[in-house]
Amino acid sequence: MSPYRLLRPATLLALAVALSAAPARALTTPALLDTLQHSAFNYFWIEANPANGLVKDRSTPGSVSSIACTGFGLSAIAIGIDHGWVTRTDGRNRVLTTLATFRNGPQGSAASGKIGYLGLFYHWLDMTTATRTWDSELSTIDTALLMAGIIDVREYFDTADPQDSLVRAYADSIVRRCNWDIMRNFGTGIYMGWKPAPGGGFNSFGRWQGYNEAMILYLLALGSPTFPVPTNNWAYWTGTYDYATYYGQTFIVFPPLFGHQYSHCWVDFRYKADAYTSARNFDYFANSRRATLAQQAYCIDNPGGWTGYSNVLWGLTASDVPTGYSARGAPPAQNDDGTITPTAAASSIAFAPEIVIPTLHNLYDNYPLLWGPYGFKDAFNPTLNWYDTDVLGIDQGPILIMIENYRTGRVWQRFMRNSWIQTGLARAGFLTTTAVGEPFRAASALELAPPSPNPSQAGFTLRFRLPAAGHVRLTLVDLAGREVSEVLDGPNTAGDHTVAAPARALSPGIYFARLEWNGRVVARRVAVVR
Fold first, then answer.
1. For the range 414-420, what are the long-range contacts, defined as Cβ-Cβ under 8 Å and sequence gap of 24 or more?
2. Residue 442 burial (CB < 10 Å; 0-12/13-18/19+)?
3. DSSP alpha helices (H): ranges in 200-262?
4. Left, alpha or beta for 358 (phi > 0: left; psi -120 to 50: alpha)?
5. Phi and psi (nearest 5°) for 166?
6. 517: helix, coil or strand?
7. Which of 7-11, 146-150, 289-293, 402-406 has the lowest mean pLDDT?
C-alpha cells in the first residue's frame, strides 16, 4: 500500500512541501515516471471538492474549477486505481459524485445559477455551487475534454456490478444530452463558445479550424449518438492546416505543444489516417512526434539566446510566464520569452521518449526549485531566474495520462473501444494504415524503420539504427503483447543494421516488430496476409 494512502491531505501537503525544499536526487527512469504520475494524481484527488467532484483550475487557494481539469481528473482516477493509489470503491464513488454533478446540475440560458446549456458546460464553475462563474463562456473545447474523461471512465467501469452500471448510465445521459450540432449555428464549423444574454450568443467567438487541440472536439461531435454534426465539418477543420518543414521535420504546424498532445491523451491515432494525412503518407501520431523533435531542435538552435536552452532543456507551450499567462511555442517561434514548461516535454513522452526522458531527468535532478507537492510546478524561466508557484490541472493531466499511455497504453485501449469514438473516426474518413513514411532521423536516436514489404505473406525486412553498441533484442509480438517470434537476441554494434523476419509460421493478422536496446523500446506495426 502506498504511504500516501495513510496520510491526511493536509499532512501529505505539508510533507510534500518540506521534501520539495531539499535538492532533488537522481531517480531511475521507472521511479521518476512513477513519481511524476503519483504526484499528478494527488493533484486531482486532493485539489477537488469531494462533495461535487469538481477539480480546481490551479493550486492557488480560492481557484475556480475548470471543466477541462475535471475531465482530466476523471481519467486520473482510473489510472490511480490501476496503480493502487486509491481503492476502486473510493475512486468509483468520486467518479459517481462528479458525474452526478454534471448530470443533475441546472441547465438553461440564464446568465447565472446554471452549470451549462444545451448539454454543454461553462468553462469555469464555482467550486462550491458548481454553477457558472467569471462571466465564462459555454466552451466547446472544454466540454469536449470533460466528455473525453467521462467516456474514459464509462469504459473503465465495465463490469456487471450495479455501481459500475450506474457510472455507465450517468455517462450515457451526459454524452447523449450534449447538442454539438447547435454549436455550428446552422453553418459549417463548430463555434468556440457561446454566452448568455445580454450581449451574448456566438457574436464574440470564431469557429474552430485546424490545427490545434480541437481535433477531439470534432471527433466527438461527428460521433455523437444524438446530435452529430455533418461530415463536411472535418474537411472544414483540415482545410486550414499549415503543413511546413522546420529543422528537418515536415508536419502540420501549431507552435505550442499542447495542441499536439490534448487529443492524443485519449485517442490513439497510431496507424490511422484521414484523407489529409493519407495523401502525405503519415498519421497524426507521427505529426506530434515531428512537432516534438522540431521543438527540441529549435531550443538547441536557441535563436533567442535564452539561458539554458539545450537538448535536455526545452518545452514551450501555453503556461504561466513571469508576466502572466501566455501561449508560447516553436517552431515557428510564438511568444518565446525563455520560459520552460515541463508539461510540454513530459506530455510528448509517447511520441519521442528518447528525447523526453533525458529532459525529465535533467529537470528533476538539476532544478530542485521547480519541484513541488504535485510534481513539477507549471513553469520556470532560467533567464530571469523565475519559478512559478502554481500547478495547473490542464498541465498535470496530460503528464499523467501520456506517461500512462507510454508505459501501458491503457487509456488508449479502453477509450478506443467506445463506439461513439469509432463512429467519429469513421465519419471523419479515418482508415487503418500499416506504415508511416518516416525516414531515419538523427544518428543519436534509436530507430526502427518501417518494415518492408508491409503487408507481407512470407516475411519482412527490418532495418534499425543503434546510437551506440549494446544488447539488442528484436521480436514480433501480437496485439496482446505476447511474443510470437524471436528475430534477434545478442550484442550489436552502433550504426545501421538489416535483418530478415520470417512470417510464414504466423497466422494472418496484425503484429508489432519490437526492438529493445539498453532499456529502450521502439516498435513498428506489421501485417501478415495470406
1. 414/78, 414/152, 414/155, 414/156, 414/158, 415/148, 415/151, 415/152, 415/155, 415/266, 415/267, 415/268, 416/267, 416/268, 417/155, 418/151, 418/154, 418/155, 420/151, 420/175, 420/220, 420/223, 420/224, 420/225
2. middle
3. 215-222, 232-238
4. alpha
5. -70, -40
6. strand
7. 7-11
Which element (helix H / strand E) includes 73? helix 67-83
Spatial distance between the Cα atoms of 230 and 215, rounded to a whole number of angstroms: 15
Helices (H), 86-139: 88-104
Position 395 pLDDT exceeds 50: yes
CA–CA separation, 139 vs 67, rounded Å? 9
Distance of CA 471 to the CA centre of its chain: 32
For residue 469, what is its C-alpha cell? 553498441
In a 3-state reduction of DSSP, which class is residue 513?
strand
How many Cβ atoms from other residues are within 10 Å of residue 48's Cβ? 24
Q: Scan for cell 481535433, then name that residue.
A: 215
DSSP 127: T
Give the Cα separation of 117 and 103 in Å (integer).
Answer: 12
Per-residue pLDDT tens digits for 42-74: 999 999 999 999 999 999 999 999 999 999 999
Q: What is d(CA 329, CA 294) in angstroms, rounded to the nearest whole number?
A: 11
Contact criterion met (CB below 8 Å) for 193 and 153: no
Residue 441 confidence (pLDDT) above 50: no
* Nearest in space to 463 (alpha carbons), one of 480, 484, 438, 483: 438
Tell me the whole-structure pTM to 2 decimals. Answer: 0.81
State whether residue 348 is helix, strand or coil.
coil
Q: Is 470 exposed, middle or buried (0-12, 13-18, 19+ CB in 10 A)?
A: middle
Q: Say how many Å lie between the first and final Cα of the chain, rounded.
A: 49
Question: Do 325 and 391 meet the contact criterion of CB atoms below 8 Å apart?
Answer: no
The Cα angle at residue 414 between residues 118 and 418, in degrees rounded to 5: 45
Over range 313-320, report the average pLDDT.
98
Give me the amino acid identity at 162.
Answer: P
Instruction: Check pLDDT > 80 for residue 383.
Output: yes
- Cell triple for residue 23? 535538492
pLDDT tens sequence across 485-514: 999 999 999 888 999 999 888 888 888 888
Give the residue from 507, 455, 501, 494 showing the smallest Cα distance to 474: 501
Residues 6+ apart with CB under 8 A from 354: 445, 446, 520
CB-based contact 511:477 (threshold 8 Å): yes
Residue found under cell 440560458: 109
Question: Which triple of cell numbers denotes residue 248?
Answer: 528537418
**Cell (9 digits) for 312:** 535536455
Distance separating alpha carbons of residues 337 and 395, to the nearest angstrom: 19
Q: For 356-384, what is the mean pLDDT?
A: 97
Q: 304 by DSSP, 3-state: which? A: coil
Q: What's the confidence (pLDDT) of residue 25?
A: 59
